[in-house]
Amino acid sequence: MALRTVPPATVGARPRRSRGVRNPARWAHVPLGLTALVLLFPFYWTVVMATNTNADFYRRPPEVVPGTHLLDNVSSVLTSLNFFGSMANTFIVAASVTVLVLFFDSMAAFAFAKYEFPGKRFLFALMMLFFMLPAQLSTVPQFITMSELGWVGTLQALIVPAAANAFGIFWMRQYIASAIPDEILDAATVDGCGFFRQYLLVVLPVIRPGLAFLGIYTFVAAWNDYVWPLIVLVNPDMLTLQVALSQLNTTRGTDYAVVMAGALMAIVPLVVVFLLFSKQFVADSVKGAVR
């Protein structure tokens, strides 16, 4: 009985693909692209309205392409408001709040995640209860406290109450609990590291991606805060950007093109901060994966 030999495969030959098999990963970008378009449309519409006139806002059908009146609208914003002064106040508040939140929340989260102390579970449950309560419930007692301290109308009234928050503690507690093994802390304790040295030398290098996300979230929230600054800031020279932009709505009417131009100018620093921190976030995530 003769044996049939199978000829060897040709070197470099491309493997056959079944005609009925399709690559599903190729279509995964379609819903992602559609979602990105939906999310980016409000920003595009802001650009369109900021570059047109107020009459174009009421035109039917509306304008869908950018116009040529951006400089005129920006000039109206700058002449109507102390825009750069308000932006400086907003940046001071947002940067100060972000630094304080990153420091206090990460330290508290480290204690909750890796240390045992009396009342730990009760304090964590109480913190989560405060996290679920609406922020508006604390407006009146917080204003009374600021009035007693003499901080009404100052930036301290915006920075100090926001120096720590329950969301940041909860987020960093979950991150630290999963990212830092107990064995590393035990080894640091054997080497003589106390709480602060463990936090600085062991915890901080590992949790930088989590801090990057919390920093972006906190900075954007502080930058866009409107209700509490509107209540507590009574000095026109100390207004934040969102409160100052609300003054563009006058009793004689609202020029929506000018309002949109001011909103567009207020978005630019947020985009810059996001691009800077997002690169750090991705780089630290990849570095942590390699480790």
Short description:
The termini are far apart.
Order of helices and strands: HHHHHHHHHHHHHH
Strand-residue proportion: under 5%
Major sheet summary line: none
Which CATH class of the largest domain is shown? Answer: Mainly Alpha
Instruction: Specify Rg, calculated over alpha carbons.
Output: 27 Å
CATH superfamily of the largest domain: MetI-like
The global form is globular
Residue-averaged pLDDT: 83
Q: What structural category do the secondary elements indicate?
A: mainly alpha
Supply the CATH architecture of the largest domain: Orthogonal Bundle
In angstroms, what separates the terminal alpha carbons? Answer: 60 Å
Protein name: Carbohydrate ABC transporter permease
Organism: Kineococcus mangrovi
Keywords: Cell membrane, Membrane, Transmembrane, Transmembrane helix, Transport
Family: Belongs to the binding-protein-dependent transport system permease family.
Task: Identify the notable features of this structure and list them briefly.
membrane, 291 residues, MetI-like, transport, cell membrane, mainly alpha, globular, MetI-like fold, Carbohydrate ABC transporter permease
What does the model show?
By secondary structure, the protein is mostly helical. It has two domains: 50-80 and 248-291, no CATH class; 97-236, Orthogonal Bundle (MetI-like fold). It is built from 14 helices and no strands. Helix 1 packs antiparallel against helix 14, helix 4 (83-114) runs antiparallel to helix 11 (208-224) and helix 11 (208-224) packs antiparallel against helix 14. The protein is globular. The relative contact order is 0.13. Mean pLDDT is 83; it is low at 285-291.
